[in-house]
Amino acid sequence: MSLNTEYIENLVFKFNNGSITPKELQVLTDWYNSHDDQKAVVTSPPEKVKSRMLTSLLARVANKRSKSVKLYPKLRWLAAAASIIVIAFGAVMVIKYKSSLPHSAQVKTSIEPGGNKATLTLPDGKSISLSNAQTGIVAGAEIRYIDGSIIENTNVNQTNNTQQLTLHTPRGGTYIIRLQDGTQVWLNAESTLKYPSGFSAEERVVELDGEAYFAVKPAYNINGGKIPFKVTTGQQIVEVLGTEFNISTYPDQASSKTTLIAGKVALSNNDSRIILSPNEQAVTTNGKTIVKKVEVTNYTAWRDGKFSFDGKTFKETMAEIGRWYDLDIIYENGVPSEELVGDAFRNQNIGFVLRLLDVAEINYKLDVNRRKLTIKGKKK
């Protein structure tokens, strides 16, 4: 991106004194990311962030000698603005790697990211490994892949809605299913969706273990009334009429989380019933539910092939990474208090995670053969 140096310098100073406009901030962000750089993000005190940001930006404006400095491969954060500056919700520090990384960052790995992986279990117990070349399936009397090709020997009696089918993604897997009513469900890694061979005229009920994003299509009975769609989990029952939402209910999580993107849902647990509005999240722990406002993209980024670390604890972030790369995460000396922020593509080698840990000054040990990542704690 070719922009007048004096103009960029002015934008840098306006960023530093807080007078920069959103449009100017976008210009500065785009200019910054048009250069080949290496950046990772960790939380840091605001004043330190401003100082380092200003130094980095001014150095870039002042001269072009960055090409002569040996730098390490770029971490490709999808959201450029989030990878540089978090305006309202906290500070982000953009860090240039030193000319020599700690030894732990130089570990070579063969652990690749996850992809399209799933198995479908039919009512008779027959299990089918679904194609990794496909992204999803379409339910019906004859089950097909989304591209229309038939999955052989999968004829299902849709008139018997007591028969259950199960779609399961392993660790490192994700898959889509379009149900008989047109509802689409995106399954995240290590998740299971149980659904009937045919929905009744009174209600549509599925069961979830793990995490999934639902885009529910409205359905109507012969009298014109809407047929409710229900998702049952270990701690919640979510009822909708037509909406989009995300549910995370992994067995190793203390809480079940339902995040509403659009429409309205009614959430029940024990004797309580809560109505969620868009951009709200219901968190149920030990039978008690709280509702809070959230940035929904932080909880739905996985559906678009991204990690989003914002608003999550270190343990939550590492659990998500562990499921995607099929790694066991071990904490040798407790869970570090650091939080990673920003987002990144999920199609990268495990090496990018190790670089994040190095930047956050976390000691770790990766055992590739046993697929185990041991977190030893903060470096001293």
From TrEMBL:
<feature type="domain" description="FecR protein">
    <location>
        <begin position="166"/>
        <end position="265"/>
    </location>
</feature>
<protein>
    <submittedName>
        <fullName>DUF4974 domain-containing protein</fullName>
    </submittedName>
</protein>
<dbReference type="Pfam" id="PF04773">
    <property type="entry name" value="FecR"/>
</dbReference>
<feature type="domain" description="Protein FecR C-terminal">
    <location>
        <begin position="306"/>
        <end position="375"/>
    </location>
</feature>
<dbReference type="InterPro" id="IPR032508">
    <property type="entry name" value="FecR_C"/>
</dbReference>
<keyword id="KW-0812">Transmembrane</keyword>
<dbReference type="InterPro" id="IPR012373">
    <property type="entry name" value="Ferrdict_sens_TM"/>
</dbReference>
<dbReference type="GO" id="GO:0016989">
    <property type="term" value="F:sigma factor antagonist activity"/>
</dbReference>
<dbReference type="Pfam" id="PF16344">
    <property type="entry name" value="FecR_C"/>
</dbReference>
<dbReference type="InterPro" id="IPR006860">
    <property type="entry name" value="FecR"/>
</dbReference>
<keyword id="KW-0472">Membrane</keyword>
<feature type="transmembrane region" description="Helical">
    <location>
        <begin position="75"/>
        <end position="95"/>
    </location>
</feature>
<keyword id="KW-1133">Transmembrane helix</keyword>
